[in-house]
Every structure is written in structure tokens, then in C-alpha cells.
Amino acid sequence: MFPLTHIFERAAALHRDRVAVEQGGLRLTYGELCARAANLAGALLARGIAPGDRVAILSQNNFRYLEVNLACVYAGVILIPLNHRLAARETDGILARTQARLLFQALPHEPKGIDVVAWQDNDPPGATNNYEKMLAAGVPPARPHDSTLDDTAQIFFTSGTTGEPKGACLTHRNLVATAYDTVTSLELTGDDVWLHAPPMFHLVDATAIWGITLVGGKHVTEHFDPRTFAATVRSHKVTQTALPPTLLDMVLRQGIDRADFKSLSRLSFGGAPMPEPLFRKLSDAFGCPLTQSYGATEVSGGVCQQLPRDLKRHGGKFTNSVGQPLPHIKVRIIDDAGIPLPPGEIGEIVVSGPRVMAGYWRNDKATQAVIPDGWCRTGDLGRCDADGHYVVAGRKKDMIITGGENVYPMEVENALLEHAAVAEAAVFGIPSERWGEEVRAVVYANPGTKITADELIAHCRGLIGGYKVPKALAISPEPLSKSGPGKIAKWLVRKNYMEQAKP
Predict the structure, then answer these.
(1) Nearest-angstrom CA–CA distance, 218 and 29
(2) What pairs with residue 55 in β-bridges?
(3) N or C terminus: fewer CB in 10 A for the chain?
(4) Interior CA angle at 444 toward 441 and 446, to 5°?
(5) Phi and psi torsions of 106, nearest 5°
């Protein structure tokens, strides 16, 4: 195995005349893309940013997102892809905790105590902006930084059950293994055209950055918009992409001409439950295999992936299987004592192998809790059949998946409890045909105070990302139900809420 710099050098040498990226009318070959990235790497080092330092990027999908990924690898700098759906306070907290030296930025944000290199989303190469000026002034290093396989390459932040995001440190070994697994599981070749429809800060899409580059395929970095999705696929002859069911449903609602999607060889989905009626509608509409995947940030992305041939196991009918483990992954189903369970029994999904993260950024306690024995505890429940195909049955913890994004109830509860009027809060998910799950909450206000649901929802919007904010909220006239030593019985609160919500 080799570090990510090998993928960079291989692309520059073997694929230099192939089109690497398309965005609107823009086209860059791999030779042009890698040359720009090498210039940017030199510019980073010239600013005094050393190998092992951290830089971050806050942007929607863009060809420069690819360049920053490549440049950081070339310079040996650790990249932090920021979730642009986070609240400003959350973003600033990540930048401060990682001591980031620089922020590449194409979205509105005013960071504190950090240099910014910005551009406008539609700026072409050579435009007058700080990014292009920095890139043009850069002198490519004579050779890429000599990273080792165990050096951290990128840090992806994921919310923790304590409410504070945790940074999963992914090494060169992790991401190279992921690149190969992406190629294998998606059966990618140099003829593939990948639409970066999901956000590139999310591993469901970020894995394709290296997988597609490895085989010399084409990246399409258009923003996802359900209204223009069909036109994007048609005009760029997209062969593959991955989206959660909620976004595929949005596309379906626009009305579909099957001819627009004749270039698609498959669509991958995951990150949220897929209702069977929606699966059937999507299969009929797109006319290509819809294959389900399952992954986790702590194991560098995908864990299991269905193949088109897996659908034939059930005569092409809907199945909630997520397929088999990827080549660089070992999976077990264990009970609460850590004992492996036989096929058919539900337990926690645990993972080992070269894809497991090095650990959480400067958080040894959390790392030890998740990887106590070399096996990463995903917190998800599942089962395996006799043929080695896995089904995800639910979440061991209370995590909510809404629109493909993970929401941890305690993080939302902490935001609610910051309001002076709130005495108690319980947050949970309820099924949603459109979003997979919706975030809901019940609060109990301090006696003598008055607060409305709308006021509390507005309060949350200033503290946490919009997708984490409860879509509806009830205010209880009584203290919330308790169990044991004064702990809120969330399951009972949710049960009562659902009963009261019945028509």
C-alpha cells in the first residue's frame, strides 16, 4: 500500500490528457488539475504552513474542492472538510480546537483568528480572487511530501453523543484503502463519470474524490438541485452518483423523463431508510439498478455495498440489505458482552481492518470507548445472513438520521436547554416518508415562564445546523417522565408524544 500522494502522481502521469473535472462549461484535464494543485501546495508551504498543520475548507461542491484535496496531500497538510450546514459557533469551535492555520472559503462565514483565502463559487480559473492569486504565486515543490501510511491526511468531524463534535482522524492508509474499496464496490473504470451530488465534506461523496481519480474517471462538480438534476446527468453523461432517499424523492417529484438518465449505470443510496414504495417508484423512473450502502465516518466511509447482481437474489424486488463488506473491511455482529453472534441474530455492528480511523482528534477517552480492542463499535444494530449479506436494523444509541444527516439528540437538547425558560428537554426521531426521520422534541418550561414552540425553534437555529433543529416541538405542562434516579425516560416521552399526535 502507498500514501495518497501516489494517487496524485499516478493521475498526473497516466491520466494527464483525460478530462478530470467538468463544471458548467469548464473542463480541466488531470494534467491541468494536478498542476494547479501542485502550485497551491507550494503556496501553502510558502505561507509557513508546515506538513502536519491543519487547514480547513468551507465550500459547496466545486472544482476547487478537488484542488484543495490534492494540494493538501501534496504538501503533507491535514485537511478538515467542514460541514457547511453547521451553525457559525460550531464551525468556529472546530477551527479553534484543531488550531487550523487557514480557511479556504466560498461560503459566507466570519471566522475568528484565522487567515481566509476566498473565492466566489462561479469564479473561473484565473479570476481575480485571493484563491487564484495565491495559486498563481505558488511554486510547486520539487516532489510531494514524503507522508507515511499512518500520517493523518484528513479530519472529518461527526457529532458526538455529548453534543460536542468529534474529529475522526483518517490516515493515508485509511483513505487509500477506501479508494480501492470504492473502485471495487462501485465497479468503477476510467469511463465512469461521477456526479458529486452529495456534499464533498461528507464521506458518502468524498470517497469518490480518490476512487475516481485513481482510475482516471471524470468528476462533475455541479451543485445538487432536484430541478436541474436531470439536465446535469444528461449534459455530462453521468454514469454514477450516490444520494440519500430523501434527495432522490425530491428528484422524483420534479417529474422524470427516463431518457434523461440513459447514461446512468447505477444509483447508490444510503444514510437514511428507504421506504419500499419509494424504491419501486425510483427503480421504474430511473431504469438503472439502485444499490444500497452502509458506512460510518470512523471507518473512512463505506462498510457494506450492494452490487447490481445482489438485486437479482430477490428477483429484482426491494430488499433492505446493504450488501456485503468491502474488501478492506472485516465486520462482526456482537452482543453486549462483545461475543460474536451467529447469522440471523441482531447485535451491534463492529468493524476492523485498515479502514478504521487512527482515533478522534486529541480525545483518547472517546477513542478508547469506540475502539477498545481493535474493533470499532459503530453504535448501529444489524444482522448478517448465511451468505454474508448485512441488514442494518436500527441504532443502538438514539442517533437520528434525517435527510441523510446524523443528528444526536443530546446535542439538540443542549441547545434547547440554553434557553432560560427551558427546564427539561427530550429529543427523538419519528418516521418520515420524505426525510427518513424527523427531529421532534418535548420540553418542560420553568414554572412561571412562558415560551412558544416557534420561539424555541428560532432559538435553536442560532446555535445548531438547520437540519438538527426540531421540525415540531411540544411544550409539556408537567415535568417529563422519569425512570431510575431522575433520568428522563425518553422512550416514554416519545410514546406519549406519538399517541397524542394520532388523528
Answers:
(1) 9
(2) 79, 102
(3) C
(4) 145
(5) -130, 15
3-state secondary structure of 156: strand
Is 466 in contact with 85 (CB distance < 8 Å)?
yes
Alpha helices in 98-216 (DSSP H): 130-137, 172-185, 203-215
C-alpha to C-alpha distance for 50 and 38, rounded to whole angstroms: 15
Sign of CA dihedral 356, 360, 363, 365: negative
Q: Which of 176, 236, 170, 231 is nearest to 209 (CA)?
A: 176
Q: Which domain holds residue 171?
A: 4-390
Residues 327 and 434 grouped into a single domain: no
Last residue of a domain, one of 326, 361, 390: 390
Q: Is the residue at 396 inside a domain? A: no
305: CB partners within 8 A, 6+ apart: 185, 186, 268, 291, 292, 293, 294, 322, 323, 324, 326
**CATH classification of the domain holding 465:** 3.30.300.30
Picking from 4, 367, 378, 404, the residue whose alpha carbon sits closest to that of residue 169 is 367
Is 401 contained in some domain? no
* 183 and 277 assigned to the same domain: yes
* CATH number of residue 300's parent domain: 3.40.50.12780
Question: Of 374, 437, 431, 366, which is closest to residue 405 (Cα–Cα)?
Answer: 437
